[in-house]
Write a structure and sequence with these properties.
seven-stranded mixed beta sheet, four-stranded mixed beta sheet, elongated
Amino acid sequence: MQRKSSNKDLRKASAAKKDEFYTQLIDIENELKHYKKQFQGKVVYCNCDDPFESNFFKYFAANFNALKLKKLITTSYVKSPIVGGQLPLFEVKGLKQKGKQPFKIEINKVSDTNADGAVSLADVEWLLRNDINVATPLKGDGDFRSDECLKFFKGADIIVTNPPFSLFRQYVAQLVKYNKNRKFVIGKGYNPDEGYVKVPAINWFTNLDTVKRHEKLDLYKNYTPEEYQRYDNYNAINVNIVNEIPKNYDGAMRVPITFLDKYNPDQFGIVNALNRYQLFDNDKLILNRGNDRIGRHMCSIDNGQRFTYFRIIIKKRKK
């Protein structure tokens, strides 16, 4: 029953422009150039990317040999309404040009078919036009949580996509459950609860290793009970500004979500993230005092008088 309801949400999200943010090719190139070695010999799956609309597909298909990929798979939720529009080169073998049937494109090799000395989208065009095995209709609806798509998901090494933002929590939960290397982009300012965007910017989220991830955050402030209040129903202190994380406190600290931009796993460990809900279910630190005004995941200070926004729970790594 829950699956039926969530499919309804996904269909609604598919029709809503606010749920789609088409990442520019130049932004993809500028970001993914830092991870090229990590793609070598890997199966990459874009599980929320219609190939006819997605610049992720264009990037990986055109750079298939340069990245030394083993395989590229993309699946669509519904058939693209702009087949032959954004990419007029496509007349795909094995797919009907009309209708709403979702499909899969699987690329195992891209050759220099036009003998111009380089592999480009022109060679991908030839592949899609002539190889009936590259593009195949899906049996189901293309939902990233479906058994069919989950099979591709489990067989992939790296997941790279632009997810449906209304299903952001479900998408992340699936990544965590199967412990997948991933990289995806979400509109900055997007509120999954409200479904709106405040500013036209993007954030990248990844667990692929980067040099930036190992940059140490310099701490300068000392902990005092007066400046760092404790939560009423959670065994942690409140830190309002990331740069004011105390250097001499080893317990749990609840910090703003902007901490993720400075997260160094060598320096800090992420315990949880919560407010009305919690990211992980393994949290042992919650101290619910039975106050009706204080929900299990709604952290407060000043004896329940003030409630805080969504925060990340962190602890310092032991040296």
